[in-house]
Automatic annotation (TrEMBL):
InterPro entries: MFS_dom, MFS_ERD6/Tret1-like, MFS_sugar_transport-like, MFS_trans_sf, MFS_Trehalose_Transporter, Sugar/inositol_transpt, Sugar_transporter_CS
GO molecular function: sugar transmembrane transporter activity
Major localization class: membrane
Organism lineage string: Eukaryota, Metazoa, Ecdysozoa, Arthropoda, Hexapoda
UniProt name for this protein: Major facilitator superfamily (MFS) profile domain-containing protein
Transmembrane segment boundaries: 12-34, 74-94, 114-133, 145-163, 169-191, 227-249, 307-331, 351-369, 376-397, 409-433, 445-463, 475-497
Chain segments carrying region Disordered: 508-527
The species this protein was found in: Acyrthosiphon pisum (Pea aphid)
Localization, UniProt: Cell membrane
Any Pfam family hit: Sugar_tr
């Protein structure tokens, strides 16, 4: 077992408390700036979003639709997304941990190839968590599944802490990956069902915001603690999540209504929206879904649904191109990548800068997603990512061919900084937002589970093949391949991804099934 003691550098607790306060203030400023300056709102949007029952529409014009109070919806969504925060620590753990494990004084001896397995096995684990979690959430409810997930998370960190050889790490990463897959299949779905459509995109974006906060958390503490303390400080997060889920989260009103628990569904909606909000419209929409759809649809029924097939194609494309952009390669190997650049900025500092940028721009995306729309952010994101990865690939190609790159020593940090920022603005959070919006309730659990399985296979292939590409072709070609994938992802969004901004879940289903707007507005009788 590893010695549990702090390193001499671990005397900076007050620094992180100060950093947290500064980040909180920065978020408040960004929210005010985006709402009041960019969109010229005449009142503070933070106060509007938390307390108003008549929020403006996403384009800045007053909405004619009834709006509930937002505070409880924010609290519920943020409590649910502590799980994604824990996911962020799992993703980023390899960045500081692998250099420790590969060092000469490590008590666990691993090879670079074994290190690539440690990084990539979470994607295999995600396969075993996605479909069971989604189907179980349809059968017993969203809350019980989410409440269970912290327990295997804690187990994975205990395995890492007590690890004696690489097999402990393999099992730990598989278990953590199972939780990751289950969270991907359940938390966005849950938030999409408890949120009003006017803030649904923003609240679903908080899934990715908290993932990036978890990544920044590990990047920030990793350089200052040893292996054992890193596991401890990551392992306390699932404990906090477990407590919040039990104390704060209600069951999804969509699940309750579909289960025949109408009074409980009404009570949850009143609790989330406020006593003065008229919930009759939402109840009518839930009843319409119940009458038109069969609950807990089977695979044979799902493949006959045009809307579900198109939703699955869209979601899989988004998650597939997300993985092929190389984002997890960068997150898993940030310190190693920066060490190979020869930059004047230290790898540890560069990683922290990247983590901070990721948090800031993911939060910015959460404020823009219901105003600018999903498609425009995705298009900006992937096109700029392609340019950044192309620049980085060209830099590495020159470096590998003996060209003096000292004049361009800041290119890697700038390229990766802009790459991470634009990824966080669009392709990071928005696929998670849209996966909670695209599927109808009776197929949602199964469909999201299948998409997560296929996306996990793509992610595993990308992360595991990174070391092979590196050994055979170098970093220049490898990052050039990632750039090409971003170009294809941009074209995919441009021609095949629908806009879901400011649309109800039923309106999205109607559009995916090919119904015209005139048909969507007519009731069953055609009136």
């Amino acid at each position: 077992m590893h010695s549990v003691k702090m390193t001499p550098k671990m005397g900076f607790g007050h620094v992180y408390l100060t950093l947290a306060a500064c980040m909180s203030s920065l978020f408040q400023f960004l929210r005010w700036f985006i709402g009041s300056v960019i969109f010229a709102h005449n009142r503070n949007p933070l106060l509007l979003s938390l307390t108003s029952s008549n929020k403006s529409a996403s384009d800045g014009t007053p909405s004619n639709e009834p709006q509930g109070k937002k505070f409880r919806q924010y609290v519920t969504a943020l409590s649910a997304t502590v799980g994604p925060f824990a996911v962020g620590t799992v993703l980023a753990w390899t960045s500081p941990a692998l250099p420790m494990l590969l060092s000469a004084d490590s008590t666990i001896k691993i090879t670079p190839d074994q290190g690539s397995w440690v990084g990539s096995l979470i994607a295999i684990g995600a396969i075993f968590g996605s479909i069971p979690a989604g189907k179980t959430a349809d059968l017993i409810g969203r809350k019980p599944v989410i409440a269970f997930l912290p327990l295997p998370f804690i187990t994975s960190w205990l395995l890492i802490y007590f690890a004696k050889d690489v097999w402990y790490l393999y099992v730990a990463r598989l278990v953590a990956g199972t939780c990751l897959g289950a969270i991907t299949a359940t938390v966005p779905m849950y938030i999409g069902e408890i949120a009003e459509k006017s803030i649904r995109g923003e609240l679903c974006s908080y899934v990715q915001v908290n993932v990036t906060l978890g990544i920044l958390y590990v990047y920030s503490i990793g350089p200052f603690v040893n292996y054992a303390w890193l596991a401890i400080m990551c392992g306390i997060l699932p404990v906090i999540w477990f407590i919040l889920v039990l104390l704060v989260l209600p069951e999804s009103p969509t699940y309750l209504w579909r289960s025949g628990k109408n009074k409980e569904a009404e009570d949850v909606l009143v609790m989330l929206r406020g006593k003065d909000y008229d919930i009759s419209g939402e109840l009518q929409a839930l009843q319409k879904e119940l009458e038109e759809k069969k609950p807990n649809g089977k695979l044979k029924d799902m493949v006959k649904s045009k809307a579900t097939l198109r939703a699955a194609f869209t979601a899989l494309g988004l998650f597939g191109f997300l993985s092929c952009s190389g984002i997890n390669v960068v997150i898993f190997n940030a310190q190693t990548i920066f060490s190979s650049t020869g930059s004047i900025v230290s790898p540890k500092t560069s990683s922290i800068v990247i983590g901070i940028l990721q948090v800031i721009f993911t939060f910015t995306s959460s404020q823009l997603v219901d105003r600018a729309g999903r498609r425009v952010l995705l298009l900006i994101s992937d096109s700029v990512m392609a340019v950044c990865l192309g620049s980085l690939g060209f830099y590495f190609w020159q470096l590998e061919h003996g060209v003096d790159t000292s004049v361009f020593s800041l290119v890697p940090l700038i390229s990766l900084g802009v790459y991470i920022s634009t990824f966080s603005l669009g392709f990071g959070p928005i696929p998670g937002v849209m996966v909670g919006e695209l599927f109808s309730p009776e197929f949602k659990g199964l469909a999201i589970g299948i998409v997560c399985v296929l996306a996990s296979l793509i992610e595993f292939s990308v992360v595991k093949s990174y070391q092979t590409l590196l050994d055979n072709y170098g970093r220049g070609v490898t990052f050039g391949v990632f750039a090409g994938c971003c170009v294809m992802g941009t074209l995919f969004v441009l021609f095949l991804v629908p806009e879901t901004k400011n649309k109800s879940l039923q309106e999205i289903q109607d559009e995916l099934s090919g119904k015209k707007k005139s048909e969507q507005k007519q009731g069953p009788s055609g009136s």
